[in-house]
Amino acid sequence: MRLPQQVPRLAVVFAVAILVLIGARTALIPATFGTFGHYRAAAVDSIAARAVKFAGRQECEECHDDVGSKRLAGNHRGVGCEVCHGPQAGHVAAPSDVTPPAPRDRSFCVRCHAYNASRPTGFPQIDPVTHNPLKACIACHDPHAPVPPTVPQECSACHGQIARLKALSHHVNLPCVTCHSVPQEHKVNPRAVRPTKPVNRSFCGQCHDQAATRVKEAPRIDLATHYQRYLCWQCHYPHYPEAK
Amino acid sequence: MQGYIYPNEYELQWGLLIVLYPYITGLVAGAFILASLERVFNVKEVQPTYRLALLTALAFLLVAPLPLLGHLGHPERSYEIFLTPNRQSAMAMFGFVYAWYLTVVLLLEVWFEWRKDLVLRAQAAHGVRKWFLYALTLGATDLSERSLRFDDSAGRVITVIGIPSAFLLHGYVGFIFGSVKANPWWSSVLMPVVFLFSAIVSGIALVLILYMLTSLLRSRPVDMPCVDKLASFLFYAMIIDVSLEMLDFLHRLYESEESIGILSQMISSRLFLSLIVLQLVIGTLVPLVLLGSTSPALRRGGAARGSPELRRLIYLVAAVLVEIGIFSIRWNVVVGGQLFSKSLRGLTVYKVEVLGSEGVAITFGLLALPLLILWVLVKVLPPWTEVEARST
Amino acid sequence: MSEPGAPGGLNRRQFVETALKACGAAAPLLVAVIRIPAGGQEAAGGVEAGYDPTGHYYGMGIDINKCIGCGRCVAACKTENDVPADAAHFNTWVERYVIENDGDVTVDSPNGGIDGFPPLESERGTLRSFFVPKLCNHCANPPCVQVCPVGATFSTRDGVVLVDEKYCIGCRYCIQACPYGARWFHPTKRVAGKCTLCYHRITRGLVPACVEVCPTGARIFGEVEQRATPLARFMRMNDVQVLKPHLNTKPKVHYANMDGEVR
């Protein structure tokens, strides 16, 4: 049986094309492709070889251990050097040629410390407009070991949002210490030492129970029967109990 | 910008060129499947469009990689898709599926179909033209009856292989979108199927338009049974296509998953024009009504309704509207999928350029280019047998 | 019917014989070239002398309760990794969530949070508000790696998802496939960009730049599945979650104290 003329002609054309493709493949696939996976292994090296811009606080402490240890003992212990002084790999490489900037302007510190309601409760915040507006922050606070120059008198210095809410309610006349006992240490080490909170219904009952005698104008309920399964603050926000 | 979008979502990544690519491969797949109707399923009425459909498919397939290359950040590295294709990536299939379809399906089919004509014309021609035509035959000049029967059966086999290949050529594009779990607008089992049926619809409509246009340009009468058949296939394909789209829509609405909020917002604001007006009303409902009004299926007696002139006009208008509608589908899928944030909280805008590498101008150019190529192909590989009768 | 002397008329048997002989001759050559050449085992991926990628598997922890939204991480990352300075390209960014009493949620991220956040217009109706730092999750089952058509993005042996800038063709499929919006397209290099977990730092024993500059320790860097690492303590002491767990991307960035409204 003879094959039609078309078959060998087409077969040759296809064979040539396939050989060309295979040849091109050999020549063009990068050498390190496939070593560790479906990628060019040399790419990992080139990415790992990129220049480092932030040296890291350990590098700073190699030379500046005095400042480093002061910082580690204070409130900025978690704040790395380059957070404020910028990337300093250049300075580590050539200390006398590159001088790290030291921010002295108010606008720098308020980036973290200006009051913002979304920040976690208790993070030290101030209102930049009212808090010594013309002074530089570093005039009173050592940036490497910042403490307030005077211990805050009012809880509202740090707990501004709570204070503002409480100011809207009838509880405005109650100082914070009415319900919370605050160890002095809390003003120095806020997260480590916390104020107490009331633990049972009878606390609120001191003013709000039918039988209570203090604070004549406080609303009264019968503590024994008013939702006796629940703690008061599960429904009533103590800082603004009238809120709907 | 409205609501919240991830910062990296401000700029849309896939624009007009990527809308164009599935549109073009859809036309290719659709035109080819129409051609296969005659060849494999022996639908005699559409015989006048067989060769034209093949050439149309080839012309559009040649243009298909251009929008992709134009969109790539590094088109000069595009050959990497042949060197190190990632077998897990649907997009990696592109190079191979395209190469397979172009060579093994379309070029081979065209070659077998036109070989006899090329040999005869080479024998009758002189000089450069003679050698050019002879080269196209690859030297296989045997016109014995056995050879010709081989051509015919080879063509049939290729068409049979070609149908699933056409499904693959366009279906994988649907899979590229449908398999992205990160995007609730795209991620759907139905995506490849909807893409395929809208491709079939657009391909039939395109061949219908081109057949009527070329008949007009050649001052030849339009074969009415042919266009009636094309129109009825278009009608049936549209019914299936719109059913699939309605299924997707109803399913989405019924399940009412988390993304329904932002997607409804997107449809009623950003996509109102392109989806409700262009895709649904102008691109689907109006053509369905038009085609339904003439459809023999909806009439007792089974004959197409209306005078030939009216039917031709209705078919042409319907087909053009369908093409606009299918382009809108591609737009709504590609651009729509990027107009809402993956945070499901916001919408952004697509700023279409007029000039520029992904602009409207380039899009029109890339849509016109296949027509130009088709014109050249028609000169080299005439689809109409009367050419031999005319003197050269 | 066979016609002796017909042009190009090959006997079928002859054709098959010739074809087989050709394949036989070409076979060793084909086998040799089709195999993807394995490059030099010694140097490739070696990074710095002494660093063994197989001895590490990195992850990250984020404590939502500690983030103050200062945006220093965003700025440091852009500096360290030469990320374009405009508002459309971020390896890491910070989002602010504001949840109202009526349940409405508003999210914003002005320029990624790089300059911090302006104060809320009004606190009155606010139930809760917090900051959420976001970055590439360096997933263990990364959808971006799955869809890259050429193998330009990949997971290293130490668990970091990287982009090969010399190989990426800029198709942007990976950017579409990332559920977290962590990837972007470099406007001039025209390749995909993303957080590298500061691979060039961690392979030298440093921490990523964002972790280095975070003033409150909201970001914790460490190893997954090892005991003696900050991340292990973080994951033991906190209830942690990942973003979009239903997508099964197996992210390696774990969030503590994350609200259900975070997407």
* N-to-C SSE string of chain C, H for helix and E for strand: EHEHEEEHEEHEEHHEHEE
Kindly report the average pLDDT value of chain C: 87
Rg calc of chain B: 22 Å
End-to-end Cα distance of chain B, whole Å, is 62 Å
Shape of chain C: elongated
SSE run of chain B: EHHHHHHHHHHHHHEHH
Query: What is the approximate shape of chain B?
Result: globular
Largest sheet strand order of chain B: 1-2
Q: How much β-strand is present in the residues of chain B?
A: under 5%
Number of helices of chain C: 7
Number of domains of chain B: 1
Number of strands of chain B: 2
Number of domains of chain C: 2
Could you say what the CATH topology of the largest domain in chain C is called?
Alpha-Beta Plaits
> CATH topology of chain B, what is it called?
Formate dehydrogenase/DMSO reductase fold
Number of strands of chain C: 12
Short description:
The complex is a heterotrimer of chains A (244), B (392) and C (263). Chain A has 244 residues and is mainly alpha-helical. Chain A has helices at 6-28, 41-48, 57-63, 65-73, 81-85, 89-93, 106-113, 160-166, 201-208, and one strand spanning 2-3.
Features:
heterotrimer; A: 244 residues; mainly alpha; B: 392 residues; Formate dehydrogenase/DMSO reductase fold; two-stranded antiparallel ribbon; 15 helices; 2 strands; 69% helix; globular; disordered C terminus
Please characterize this protein's 3D structure:
The complex is a heterotrimer of chains A (244), B (392) and C (263). Among the domains of chain A are: 57-150, no CATH class; 174-234, no CATH class. Chain A is built from 9 helices and 1 strand. Chain A has helices spanning 6-28, 41-48, 57-63, 65-73, 81-85, 89-93, 106-113, 160-166, 201-208, and one strand spanning 2-3. Chain A is elongated. The model of chain B is unreliable at 387-392 (pLDDT under 50). In chain B, α11 (272-294) runs antiparallel to α12 (308-334). The relative contact order of chain B is 0.16. With 263 residues, chain C is α+β, with helices and mostly antiparallel strands. Chain C has 2 domains: 53-141 and 192-256, Alpha-Beta Plaits; 143-185, Alpha-Beta Plaits (2-Layer Sandwich). In chain C, the strands form 4 sheets. Chain C has a 4-stranded mixed β-sheet, with helices on one face. A 3-stranded antiparallel β-sheet of chain C has the order 4-3-5, with helices on one face. In chain C, a hairpin with a 5-residue loop joins β6 (153-155) and β7 (161-163). Chain C is elongated and about 95 Å long. Residues 1-9 and 32-46 of chain C have low confidence and may be disordered. Chains in contact: A-B, A-C, B-C. At the A-C interface, β1, α1 and α2 of A face β1, α1, α2, β3 and β5 of C.
